[in-house]
Amino acid sequence: MKIYKIALLPADGIGPQVIDAAVEVLEKVSTASGFTVEHTTFPWSCAYYRDHGSMMPEDGIDVLRKFDAILLGAVGWPAEVPDSVSLHGLLLPIRKAFSQYVNMRPHRLLPGVDGPLKRSDFDLLCIRENTEGEYSGAGGNVHKGTPDEVAVETSIFTRRGVERILRYGFEQARKRSGRLASVTKSNAQRYSMVLWDEVTRELAEEYNDVAVTSYHVDAIAARMIMAPESLDVVVASNLFGDILTDMGAAIQGGLGFAASANINPDKSVPSMFEPVHGSAPDIAHLGIANPIAAVWSTAMMLDHLGEANASQKVMAAIAATTAKGIGSTPGRDTTKQITQAILSEIE
Ligand code: NAD
Ligand code: IPM
Ligand code: MN
User: What pLDDT is recorded for position 310?
Assistant: First the structure.
Protein backbone atom coordinates (compact mmCIF):
# COMPACT_ATOMS: atom_id res chain seq x y z
CA MET A 1 0.00 0.00 0.00
CA LYS A 2 1.26 3.43 -0.94
CA ILE A 3 2.29 5.57 2.05
CA TYR A 4 2.55 9.36 1.93
CA LYS A 5 4.47 11.32 4.54
CA ILE A 6 2.80 14.65 5.19
CA ALA A 7 4.21 17.44 7.38
CA LEU A 8 1.51 19.44 9.14
CA LEU A 9 2.16 23.08 10.07
CA PRO A 10 -1.10 24.24 11.66
CA ALA A 11 0.60 27.36 13.13
CA ASP A 12 -1.57 30.26 14.30
CA GLY A 13 -5.13 31.41 14.94
CA ILE A 14 -7.66 29.40 12.94
CA GLY A 15 -4.79 27.45 11.33
CA PRO A 16 -4.99 24.51 13.78
CA GLN A 17 -8.80 24.40 13.51
CA VAL A 18 -8.85 24.13 9.73
CA ILE A 19 -5.91 21.71 9.66
CA ASP A 20 -7.71 19.41 12.13
CA ALA A 21 -10.63 19.37 9.70
CA ALA A 22 -8.35 18.74 6.72
CA VAL A 23 -6.65 15.83 8.50
CA GLU A 24 -9.99 14.18 9.34
CA VAL A 25 -10.94 14.38 5.68
CA LEU A 26 -7.50 13.13 4.59
CA GLU A 27 -7.77 10.09 6.88
CA LYS A 28 -11.25 9.22 5.71
CA VAL A 29 -10.50 9.58 2.01
CA SER A 30 -7.22 7.65 2.24
CA THR A 31 -8.98 4.71 3.89
CA ALA A 32 -11.71 4.85 1.24
CA SER A 33 -9.12 5.01 -1.56
CA GLY A 34 -6.59 2.42 -0.42
CA PHE A 35 -3.53 4.46 0.53
CA THR A 36 -2.01 5.51 3.85
CA VAL A 37 -1.10 8.95 5.11
CA GLU A 38 1.50 9.29 7.85
CA HIS A 39 1.32 12.78 9.22
CA THR A 40 3.67 14.56 11.60
CA THR A 41 2.66 17.80 13.28
CA PHE A 42 5.23 20.54 13.89
CA PRO A 43 4.39 23.24 16.46
CA TRP A 44 6.21 26.01 14.55
CA SER A 45 4.17 29.17 15.05
CA CYS A 46 4.08 32.50 16.86
CA ALA A 47 3.67 30.60 20.15
CA TYR A 48 6.83 28.63 19.27
CA TYR A 49 8.58 31.94 18.62
CA ARG A 50 7.66 33.16 22.11
CA ASP A 51 9.31 30.07 23.64
CA HIS A 52 12.28 29.63 21.28
CA GLY A 53 13.00 33.04 19.72
CA SER A 54 12.52 31.70 16.20
CA MET A 55 9.54 30.54 14.15
CA MET A 56 11.14 27.17 13.36
CA PRO A 57 14.35 25.42 14.35
CA GLU A 58 17.52 26.11 12.38
CA ASP A 59 17.27 22.78 10.57
CA GLY A 60 13.53 23.26 9.90
CA ILE A 61 13.88 23.22 6.11
CA ASP A 62 15.94 20.01 6.21
CA VAL A 63 13.35 18.40 8.46
CA LEU A 64 10.59 19.28 5.98
CA ARG A 65 12.64 18.11 3.00
CA LYS A 66 12.02 14.48 3.97
CA PHE A 67 8.25 14.75 3.50
CA ASP A 68 6.17 14.17 0.37
CA ALA A 69 4.15 17.34 0.98
CA ILE A 70 3.43 20.04 3.54
CA LEU A 71 -0.03 21.11 4.67
CA LEU A 72 -0.05 24.53 6.32
CA GLY A 73 -2.83 26.32 8.23
CA ALA A 74 -1.99 30.01 8.64
CA VAL A 75 0.94 31.97 10.01
CA GLY A 76 0.69 35.21 11.96
CA TRP A 77 -0.41 36.53 15.31
CA PRO A 78 0.35 40.23 14.98
CA ALA A 79 -0.73 41.09 18.53
CA GLU A 80 2.33 39.18 19.81
CA VAL A 81 4.82 38.83 16.94
CA PRO A 82 5.21 41.37 14.11
CA ASP A 83 4.10 39.90 10.77
CA SER A 84 7.42 40.99 9.27
CA VAL A 85 9.08 38.55 11.68
CA SER A 86 6.61 35.64 11.66
CA LEU A 87 6.01 35.39 7.93
CA HIS A 88 9.71 35.84 7.09
CA GLY A 89 10.48 33.17 9.68
CA LEU A 90 8.23 30.39 8.43
CA LEU A 91 5.92 30.67 5.41
CA LEU A 92 8.04 32.72 3.01
CA PRO A 93 11.33 30.85 3.64
CA ILE A 94 9.61 27.52 2.87
CA ARG A 95 8.28 28.81 -0.45
CA LYS A 96 11.75 30.04 -1.36
CA ALA A 97 13.87 27.17 0.01
CA PHE A 98 11.93 24.58 -1.98
CA SER A 99 11.60 26.84 -5.07
CA GLN A 100 7.83 26.54 -4.92
CA TYR A 101 7.69 29.09 -7.67
CA VAL A 102 4.09 28.40 -8.69
CA ASN A 103 1.27 29.49 -6.42
CA MET A 104 -1.87 28.07 -7.97
CA ARG A 105 -5.19 29.49 -6.78
CA PRO A 106 -8.53 28.42 -8.29
CA HIS A 107 -11.53 30.73 -7.98
CA ARG A 108 -14.97 29.41 -8.77
CA LEU A 109 -18.27 29.26 -6.95
CA LEU A 110 -19.21 26.08 -5.17
CA PRO A 111 -22.81 24.93 -5.59
CA GLY A 112 -25.17 26.69 -3.19
CA VAL A 113 -22.75 29.56 -2.54
CA ASP A 114 -24.22 32.92 -3.43
CA GLY A 115 -21.18 35.10 -4.16
CA PRO A 116 -21.34 38.89 -4.05
CA LEU A 117 -21.45 39.11 -7.87
CA LYS A 118 -24.73 37.13 -7.92
CA ARG A 119 -23.47 35.16 -10.89
CA SER A 120 -21.77 31.79 -11.23
CA ASP A 121 -20.45 31.82 -14.80
CA PHE A 122 -16.76 32.23 -13.93
CA ASP A 123 -13.94 29.78 -13.35
CA LEU A 124 -10.53 31.41 -12.83
CA LEU A 125 -7.17 29.84 -12.24
CA CYS A 126 -4.66 32.31 -10.89
CA ILE A 127 -0.99 31.41 -11.32
CA ARG A 128 1.03 33.60 -8.99
CA GLU A 129 4.84 33.84 -9.07
CA ASN A 130 5.89 32.77 -5.58
CA THR A 131 9.62 33.19 -4.98
CA GLU A 132 10.87 36.54 -6.26
CA GLY A 133 9.55 39.85 -7.65
CA GLU A 134 8.18 42.20 -5.02
CA TYR A 135 8.77 39.53 -2.31
CA SER A 136 12.49 39.16 -2.95
CA GLY A 137 13.27 40.58 0.47
CA ALA A 138 16.09 42.78 -0.80
CA GLY A 139 16.29 46.09 1.00
CA GLY A 140 17.13 47.93 4.15
CA ASN A 141 16.85 51.10 6.18
CA VAL A 142 19.26 53.93 6.93
CA HIS A 143 18.93 56.67 9.52
CA LYS A 144 16.37 54.50 11.29
CA GLY A 145 14.03 56.33 13.64
CA THR A 146 15.14 59.80 12.51
CA PRO A 147 13.31 62.24 10.22
CA ASP A 148 15.89 61.32 7.55
CA GLU A 149 14.95 57.66 7.60
CA VAL A 150 15.05 55.87 4.25
CA ALA A 151 13.48 52.51 3.48
CA VAL A 152 14.42 50.70 0.28
CA GLU A 153 12.68 47.52 -0.87
CA THR A 154 13.81 46.31 -4.26
CA SER A 155 11.74 44.06 -6.49
CA ILE A 156 13.91 41.52 -8.26
CA PHE A 157 12.67 39.98 -11.49
CA THR A 158 14.98 37.50 -13.17
CA ARG A 159 14.44 36.37 -16.74
CA ARG A 160 14.61 32.77 -15.49
CA GLY A 161 12.00 33.45 -12.81
CA VAL A 162 9.69 35.38 -15.13
CA GLU A 163 10.00 32.83 -17.92
CA ARG A 164 9.26 29.78 -15.78
CA ILE A 165 6.08 31.22 -14.26
CA LEU A 166 4.80 32.54 -17.59
CA ARG A 167 5.56 29.18 -19.20
CA TYR A 168 3.59 27.45 -16.46
CA GLY A 169 0.71 29.84 -17.21
CA PHE A 170 0.83 29.06 -20.93
CA GLU A 171 0.84 25.32 -20.15
CA GLN A 172 -2.21 25.65 -17.89
CA ALA A 173 -4.01 27.75 -20.52
CA ARG A 174 -3.28 25.05 -23.10
CA LYS A 175 -4.87 22.44 -20.79
CA ARG A 176 -7.96 24.60 -20.20
CA SER A 177 -9.63 27.13 -22.52
CA GLY A 178 -6.56 28.20 -24.47
CA ARG A 179 -6.87 31.72 -23.04
CA LEU A 180 -4.22 33.36 -20.89
CA ALA A 181 -4.23 36.76 -19.20
CA SER A 182 -0.76 38.10 -18.36
CA VAL A 183 -0.86 40.73 -15.62
CA THR A 184 1.43 43.70 -16.16
CA LYS A 185 1.97 47.28 -15.04
CA SER A 186 4.52 48.26 -17.67
CA ASN A 187 2.93 51.67 -18.05
CA ALA A 188 4.41 52.61 -14.66
CA GLN A 189 7.06 49.99 -13.89
CA ARG A 190 9.36 50.35 -16.85
CA TYR A 191 12.02 47.78 -16.04
CA SER A 192 10.52 44.74 -14.34
CA MET A 193 7.16 44.78 -16.06
CA VAL A 194 8.69 45.60 -19.44
CA LEU A 195 10.76 42.41 -19.04
CA TRP A 196 7.56 40.57 -18.05
CA ASP A 197 5.81 41.78 -21.23
CA GLU A 198 8.80 40.91 -23.44
CA VAL A 199 8.91 37.36 -22.14
CA THR A 200 5.11 37.11 -22.53
CA ARG A 201 5.48 38.06 -26.20
CA GLU A 202 8.36 35.64 -26.76
CA LEU A 203 6.45 32.72 -25.28
CA ALA A 204 3.30 33.69 -27.21
CA GLU A 205 5.20 32.84 -30.40
CA GLU A 206 6.14 29.43 -29.06
CA TYR A 207 2.59 28.76 -27.75
CA ASN A 208 0.78 30.04 -30.81
CA ASP A 209 -2.25 27.90 -29.94
CA VAL A 210 -2.81 30.00 -26.79
CA ALA A 211 -4.56 33.38 -27.03
CA VAL A 212 -2.70 35.66 -24.63
CA THR A 213 -3.83 39.14 -23.59
CA SER A 214 -1.80 41.48 -21.38
CA TYR A 215 -3.84 43.47 -18.88
CA HIS A 216 -2.59 46.15 -16.53
CA VAL A 217 -3.18 45.04 -12.96
CA ASP A 218 -5.62 47.84 -12.19
CA ALA A 219 -7.70 47.08 -15.26
CA ILE A 220 -7.79 43.33 -14.60
CA ALA A 221 -8.88 44.01 -11.01
CA ALA A 222 -11.94 45.81 -12.37
CA ARG A 223 -12.47 43.10 -15.00
CA MET A 224 -12.48 40.38 -12.33
CA ILE A 225 -15.56 42.07 -10.85
CA MET A 226 -17.27 43.32 -14.02
CA ALA A 227 -16.59 40.46 -16.47
CA PRO A 228 -14.95 37.51 -14.67
CA GLU A 229 -16.30 35.11 -17.31
CA SER A 230 -13.95 36.74 -19.85
CA LEU A 231 -10.93 35.45 -17.92
CA ASP A 232 -9.62 31.90 -17.51
CA VAL A 233 -5.95 31.44 -16.60
CA VAL A 234 -4.38 34.56 -15.07
CA VAL A 235 -0.62 34.74 -14.53
CA ALA A 236 0.81 37.44 -12.28
CA SER A 237 3.83 38.51 -10.28
CA ASN A 238 4.07 37.76 -6.56
CA LEU A 239 2.42 40.89 -5.13
CA PHE A 240 -0.08 41.40 -7.95
CA GLY A 241 -1.08 37.75 -7.62
CA ASP A 242 -1.42 38.09 -3.86
CA ILE A 243 -3.85 40.98 -4.18
CA LEU A 244 -5.82 39.58 -7.10
CA THR A 245 -6.33 36.24 -5.32
CA ASP A 246 -7.91 37.81 -2.24
CA MET A 247 -10.24 39.43 -4.77
CA GLY A 248 -10.73 36.03 -6.36
CA ALA A 249 -11.58 34.70 -2.91
CA ALA A 250 -14.09 37.50 -2.45
CA ILE A 251 -15.93 36.77 -5.70
CA GLN A 252 -16.09 33.06 -4.83
CA GLY A 253 -17.92 33.93 -1.60
CA GLY A 254 -15.15 34.73 0.86
CA LEU A 255 -11.71 33.76 2.11
CA GLY A 256 -13.10 30.61 3.71
CA PHE A 257 -13.43 29.07 0.22
CA ALA A 258 -10.11 29.96 -1.43
CA ALA A 259 -7.51 27.19 -1.75
CA SER A 260 -3.91 27.27 -2.86
CA ALA A 261 -0.95 25.13 -3.82
CA ASN A 262 2.68 26.27 -3.61
CA ILE A 263 4.26 24.02 -6.18
CA ASN A 264 7.71 23.10 -7.34
CA PRO A 265 6.78 21.33 -10.55
CA ASP A 266 9.91 19.15 -10.65
CA LYS A 267 8.69 17.28 -7.53
CA SER A 268 12.22 16.72 -6.16
CA VAL A 269 11.26 18.62 -3.00
CA PRO A 270 7.96 18.89 -1.12
CA SER A 271 5.30 21.28 -2.32
CA MET A 272 3.12 23.07 0.22
CA PHE A 273 -0.66 23.33 0.32
CA GLU A 274 -2.52 25.99 2.32
CA PRO A 275 -5.68 28.03 2.29
CA VAL A 276 -5.31 31.55 0.86
CA HIS A 277 -6.58 33.04 4.11
CA GLY A 278 -4.59 33.98 7.19
CA SER A 279 -5.00 33.25 10.87
CA ALA A 280 -8.21 35.34 11.15
CA PRO A 281 -7.59 36.69 14.67
CA ASP A 282 -11.06 38.29 14.65
CA ILE A 283 -12.83 34.90 14.62
CA ALA A 284 -10.14 32.62 16.03
CA HIS A 285 -12.01 31.95 19.28
CA LEU A 286 -15.47 31.50 17.79
CA GLY A 287 -15.23 28.02 16.23
CA ILE A 288 -16.78 29.27 12.97
CA ALA A 289 -13.76 29.24 10.66
CA ASN A 290 -14.75 27.74 7.33
CA PRO A 291 -12.55 24.65 6.78
CA ILE A 292 -13.45 24.40 3.07
CA ALA A 293 -10.41 26.39 1.89
CA ALA A 294 -8.10 24.03 3.81
CA VAL A 295 -9.96 20.92 2.68
CA TRP A 296 -9.91 22.09 -0.96
CA SER A 297 -6.15 22.71 -0.57
CA THR A 298 -5.87 19.11 0.67
CA ALA A 299 -7.62 17.97 -2.50
CA MET A 300 -5.01 19.91 -4.49
CA MET A 301 -2.31 18.11 -2.50
CA LEU A 302 -3.80 14.69 -3.30
CA ASP A 303 -3.90 15.58 -6.98
CA HIS A 304 -0.25 16.69 -6.85
CA LEU A 305 0.70 13.40 -5.14
CA GLY A 306 -0.92 11.46 -7.98
CA GLU A 307 -4.12 10.50 -6.12
CA ALA A 308 -6.51 12.12 -8.60
CA ASN A 309 -9.45 9.88 -7.63
CA ALA A 310 -9.15 10.72 -3.95
CA SER A 311 -8.82 14.39 -4.85
CA GLN A 312 -12.04 14.22 -6.87
CA LYS A 313 -13.79 12.46 -3.99
CA VAL A 314 -12.88 15.32 -1.67
CA MET A 315 -13.99 17.97 -4.15
CA ALA A 316 -17.29 16.12 -4.71
CA ALA A 317 -17.83 15.92 -0.93
CA ILE A 318 -17.23 19.67 -0.55
CA ALA A 319 -19.62 20.44 -3.40
CA ALA A 320 -22.31 18.10 -2.03
CA THR A 321 -21.98 19.81 1.37
CA THR A 322 -22.39 23.36 0.10
CA ALA A 323 -25.16 22.26 -2.28
CA LYS A 324 -27.10 21.24 0.83
CA GLY A 325 -26.57 24.70 2.27
CA ILE A 326 -23.95 23.61 4.83
CA GLY A 327 -20.91 25.89 4.92
CA SER A 328 -22.33 27.97 2.08
CA THR A 329 -23.10 31.09 4.14
CA PRO A 330 -20.03 32.57 5.86
CA GLY A 331 -20.30 32.63 9.65
CA ARG A 332 -23.47 30.57 9.98
CA ASP A 333 -22.25 26.99 10.53
CA THR A 334 -19.48 25.90 12.87
CA THR A 335 -16.19 24.44 11.69
CA LYS A 336 -17.23 21.10 13.21
CA GLN A 337 -20.64 21.05 11.48
CA ILE A 338 -19.08 21.74 8.09
CA THR A 339 -16.34 19.14 8.65
CA GLN A 340 -18.86 16.47 9.73
CA ALA A 341 -20.97 17.18 6.65
CA ILE A 342 -17.96 16.80 4.34
CA LEU A 343 -16.91 13.57 6.09
CA SER A 344 -20.37 12.07 5.74
CA GLU A 345 -20.26 12.71 1.98
CA ILE A 346 -17.12 10.57 1.58
CA GLU A 347 -18.06 6.94 1.17
P1 NAD B 1 -7.13 36.88 7.16
O2 NAD B 1 -7.21 36.11 5.89
O3 NAD B 1 -6.64 36.14 8.34
O4 NAD B 1 -8.58 37.48 7.52
C5 NAD B 1 -9.27 38.40 6.67
C6 NAD B 1 -10.78 38.27 6.95
O7 NAD B 1 -11.27 37.03 6.43
C8 NAD B 1 -11.11 38.27 8.44
O9 NAD B 1 -12.30 38.98 8.65
C10 NAD B 1 -11.32 36.79 8.75
O11 NAD B 1 -12.19 36.52 9.82
C12 NAD B 1 -11.89 36.25 7.44
N13 NAD B 1 -11.51 34.83 7.26
C14 NAD B 1 -10.29 34.37 6.93
N15 NAD B 1 -10.30 33.03 6.87
C16 NAD B 1 -11.56 32.64 7.14
C17 NAD B 1 -12.20 31.36 7.23
N18 NAD B 1 -11.54 30.21 6.99
N19 NAD B 1 -13.51 31.31 7.56
C20 NAD B 1 -14.18 32.45 7.77
N21 NAD B 1 -13.64 33.69 7.69
C22 NAD B 1 -12.34 33.78 7.39
O23 NAD B 1 -6.23 38.17 6.85
P24 NAD B 1 -5.62 39.27 7.84
O25 NAD B 1 -6.61 39.60 8.89
O26 NAD B 1 -5.10 40.30 6.96
O27 NAD B 1 -4.38 38.55 8.51
C28 NAD B 1 -4.37 37.95 9.81
C29 NAD B 1 -3.01 37.34 10.03
O30 NAD B 1 -2.80 36.26 9.12
C31 NAD B 1 -1.84 38.29 9.82
O32 NAD B 1 -0.84 37.92 10.71
C33 NAD B 1 -1.41 38.01 8.40
O34 NAD B 1 -0.10 38.38 8.11
C35 NAD B 1 -1.59 36.52 8.37
N36 NAD B 1 -1.79 35.92 7.04
C37 NAD B 1 -1.22 34.70 6.85
C38 NAD B 1 -1.44 34.01 5.66
C39 NAD B 1 -0.83 32.67 5.48
O40 NAD B 1 -0.35 32.07 6.42
N41 NAD B 1 -0.83 32.13 4.29
C42 NAD B 1 -2.27 34.58 4.70
C43 NAD B 1 -2.84 35.82 4.92
C44 NAD B 1 -2.59 36.49 6.11
C1 IPM C 1 -0.81 34.73 1.09
C2 IPM C 1 -0.44 35.64 2.23
C3 IPM C 1 1.07 35.83 2.32
C4 IPM C 1 1.55 36.39 1.01
C5 IPM C 1 1.53 36.73 3.47
C6 IPM C 1 0.99 36.26 4.78
C7 IPM C 1 3.01 36.91 3.51
O8 IPM C 1 -1.10 36.87 2.11
O9 IPM C 1 -0.39 33.56 1.11
O10 IPM C 1 -1.54 35.17 0.20
O11 IPM C 1 1.46 37.61 0.80
O12 IPM C 1 2.01 35.62 0.19
MN1 MN D 1 -2.49 36.95 0.49
Answer: 98
Closest ligand 2 atom number to CA of residue 103: 9
CB 235 within 8 A of CB 165: yes
Residue at which a domain ends, from 200, 228, 251? 251
Residue 201 and residue 303 in one domain: no
How many degrees, rounded to 5, is the angle at CA 258 between CA 256 and CA 260?
A: 130
**Spatial distance between the Cα atoms of 298 and 273, rounded to a whole number of angstroms:** 7
Ligand 2 centroid to residue 10 C-alpha, Å: 15
CATH code at 188?
3.40.50.2300
CA of 242 to the centre of ligand 3 (A): 5
Which of 184, 182, 158, 159 lies closest to 170, judged by CA? Answer: 182
Domain of 85 in residue numbering reads as: 1-104+254-347
138 domain residue, yes or no = no
Q: Give the mean model confidence (pLDDT) for residues 48-62.
A: 98
Is 78 a pocket residue for ligand 1 (Cβ < 6 Å)? Answer: yes
Q: Can you list the positions of beta strands (E) in the chain?
A: 3-11, 36-41, 69-74, 102-108, 123-129, 133-142, 150-156, 179-184, 211-216, 233-236, 259-263, 271-275
What CATH number has the domain bearing residue 313? 3.40.718.10
Q: How far apart are CA 55 and CA 108, in angstroms?
A: 34
pLDDT tens by residue, 91-130 = 999 999 999 999 999 999 999 999 999 999 999 999 999 9
Backbone angles phi, psi at 74, to 5 degrees: -160, 145
**91 Cα nearest atom in ligand 2:** 7
- What would the mean pLDDT of 331-342 be, rounded to a whole number? 97
pLDDT tens for residues 286-314? 999 999 999 999 999 999 999 999 999 99
State the sign of the Cα–Cα–Cα–Cα dihedral 95, 193, 243, 321. Answer: negative
Reduced to 3 states, what is the DSSP secondary structure of residue 158? coil
Give the residue from 162, 159, 166, 175 showing the smallest Cα distance to 209: 175
